[in-house]
Amino acid sequence: MMTAWQLAAAGHTVTLVERGKCGQEASWSGGGIVSPLYPWRYSEPVSNLAQQAGDEYAALTAQLLEATGIDAEYRQKGLLYLRVDDGDRAFEWAKRANKPLEAVDAAFIYRKEPWLAAGLPSGLWMPTLGSVRNPRLCQALRAHLMTLPGVTLHEGASVEALCMEEGRVTGAVTSQGRITGGQVIVCGGAWSGVLLGSIGVALPVRPVKGQMMLFRTPPMPGGRQLLERVVLADGRYLIPRADGRVLVGSTLEQVDFDKRPTEAARDSLRQSAIAMLPALAECEIEHHWAGLRPAAPDGIPFIGAVPGIEGLHVNAGHYRNGLVLAPAATRLLVDQLLGRPTRIDPAPYQPSKRLRERGCSETEDGETFLL
């Protein structure tokens, strides 16, 4: 949806083809933290995209609110890291990235979040980190696209085949009929490898299941919420929403395309949440769901032209950071597609070099459409 918006803003006609409803897969299923969970543990290509994208979310969500009336609830209230065992590495990263990060003691932690579990001696504090309510961000993006004259949405349209003519992709056969386009962009998340595999391109993007849970919490004394900032400990996180709800995530499961929630994950998530915020033991579990992350080697997405097939492009493989990277990753592709200078070096994301290195098979102007 961000790609369609940027192309339409540049004066192009765009058709967006979606098997379900726009924004209902991984973008909806995640937590909405606008940063990699432990940003100092990521490679430079991911960090570069994340830093550029993170700087844009305040303006992006404000623009969508004005255009649609839908508040994506961008909140820049910071993140508390608990039980971090590589703090030196974290501070080295913060210095390079010019990000504020400080070591804090127990008194600081409990001033910020008084109902966290007792006995926390220290932590790390990143005051500028933000989060967004991702389902509402998806709603706002979709609503905005519906108002743009150059954009057509085909929802409930499964792609059955990509159309090829003399080494060039010309469109797709869908459950709603054939749709043509001068340029085709595959941004189908965990399913991108399946789509490209149908024409002999072995894109190494696979699904990694993640399960999450949402608690409804009561009002607290003094008008506070039970949790007001993102808290991360032992790889699990709690994310507060503006209405007081608290989200806990997430699991990492290699189960192909199985999106069914499980009781084992429900119990594990609940235990993790209560270990961080004991009062959640008395709170209602409002929802439990699962989604599929699109995992690529080294967590680095494929962004650019698909080698050997004219007119075909891909933006996929963002793993746990699809929403985190989206504003920058989509602009990087759109800038390349339209021949504009890019803000960051596109080389680390190029499918041509990366697919050749892995021995993968490779097989005008006009309307662009997105799968």
Which key terms come to mind for this protein?
D-Amino Acid Oxidase, Chain A, domain 2; FAD/NAD(P)-binding domain; 2 domains; six-stranded mixed β-sheet; 17 strands; globular; 371 residues; alpha/beta
Short description:
The protein is an alpha/beta fold. It contains 11 helices and 17 strands. About 30% of the residues lie in helices and about 25% in strands.
What is the CATH topology descriptor of the largest domain? FAD/NAD(P)-binding domain
* Tally of alpha and pi helices: 11
Rg result: 21 Å
**Low-pLDDT sequence parts:** 359-366
| Corresponding CATH superfamily of the largest domain | FAD/NAD(P)-binding domain
Characterise the protein shown here:
There is one protein chain. The chain is of the alpha/beta class. It has two domains: 1-23 and 137-205 and 298-357, 3-Layer(bba) Sandwich (FAD/NAD(P)-binding domain); 79-128 and 207-295, D-Amino Acid Oxidase, Chain A, domain 2, CATH 3.30.9.10. It is 30% helix and 25% strand. The protein contains eleven helices and 17 strands. It has an eight-stranded mixed sheet. A six-stranded mixed sheet has the order 5-1-17-9-16-15, with helices on both faces. Strand 15 (302-305) and strand 16 (312-316) form a beta hairpin. Helix 4 crosses helix 7. The protein is globular and about 65 Å long. The relative contact order is 0.20.
